[in-house]
Amino acid sequence: MELSDLHIFRTVAREGGITRAAEKLNRVQSNVTTRVRQFEEKLGVDLFIRSGRRLTLSPAGNTLLDYADRMLDLAAEAQNAVTDRVPRGLLRLGSMESTAAIRLPAVLSRFGSRFPDVTIELRTGNTLELGNALLAGEIDAAFAGEPLPDGPFCQLTAYVEDLVIVTAKNVPLDGPPGSPARTMLAFEHGCAHRKRLEDWFAARDIIPERIIEMGSYHAILGCASVGMGVALLPAPVLASIPQSDALQVHALPDGKNRARTLLAWRKGVTSPNVDALTSLYRGSAV
Q1: In the chain, what's the furthest Cα-to-Cα distance?
Q2: SS3 annotation, 72-139
Q3: Closest C-alpha to 203, from 267, 256, 239
Q4: Phi and psi (nearest 5°) for 284?
Q5: What is the CATH superfamily name and number for domain 161-258?
């Protein structure tokens, strides 16, 4: 059943005959008559009761007219949805946990004020997980640490974060084997900050004796505060936890002490909602 058939049928039904329908459709009368006959043959029912040149809807035609109205209106709505550049509907957003906790509340509040017809669905994950979710079409955009996994991504700098090493106050970084200074507190593989912490150990010719993996910065910092190991994280995260007084902050070398958080999306796959989000970051990091 083609939409063009439904459109011609509905116009004939509303105009009450072929002549006025042909004028409305800007078609010759014979063409409209042929299309209606072919449509009836395709369906196997008479849609009109014919009395001379007069046409009235048959019972089957009355039933179809209701469906034709709904189908044509829905088709028009669908076309408008994909061509309308006004942000609306669902924006599926991914983010690293630290960005979601520290950076996003303010920007999502601003986004909601500017684009009230957009609903945001947020999921957190590490950079590898977020990159895979973008490739799979499971999310529309992501805040991820650099470097992103290989893929057809567009990106811009959303934030530039100061990075620090964190231990408990009684844990020296030059501790001997068996000390907490030889234990790494980190997220699972795929986290950009975990890779930087691994590189930091390697630059000091130290192989971590233990790696304790956790699922949140609050858990990592809680363990660091009681002397369980060493963590690396964005400095703003420290202000969000109650244990910060028990922590010692160690500076990273120049060139290793800053990292970009990227806003990324699939190359060639744009939407008004993603465009609206990126508009908040164009020009400079927030």
Answers
A1: 104
A2: HHHHHHHHHHHHCCCCCEEEEEEECHHHHHHHHHHHHHHHHHHCCCEEEEEEECCHHHHHHHHHCCCC
A3: 256
A4: -160, 160
A5: Periplasmic binding protein-like II (3.40.190.10)
Measure the CA–CA gap between 256 and 258, rounded to whole angstroms: 6
Dihedral of the alpha carbons of 218, 223, 226, 232, in degrees to the nearest 10: -80
List strand residue ranges (DSSP E) for the chain, in order.
48-51, 54-57, 89-95, 118-124, 141-145, 153-168, 183-186, 210-213, 231-234, 247-251, 258-266
Token readout for 80 is: 């408008």
Give the pLDDT confidence of 193-217 residue by residue, as tens digits: 899 999 999 999 999 999 999 988 8
Q: What are phi and psi of 79, to 5 degrees?
A: -65, -40
Question: Alpha-carbon distance 192 to 198, whole Å?
Answer: 10
- Closest by CA to 15, choosing from 64, 48, 59, is 48
% of the chain beyond a pLDDT of 90: 64
pLDDT in tens, 152-177: 899 999 999 999 999 999 899 988 99
The fold of the 89-159+260-279 domain, in CATH, is D-Maltodextrin-Binding Protein; domain 2 (3.40.190)
pTM above 0.70, yes or no: no
Distance CA 193, CA 231 (A): 9
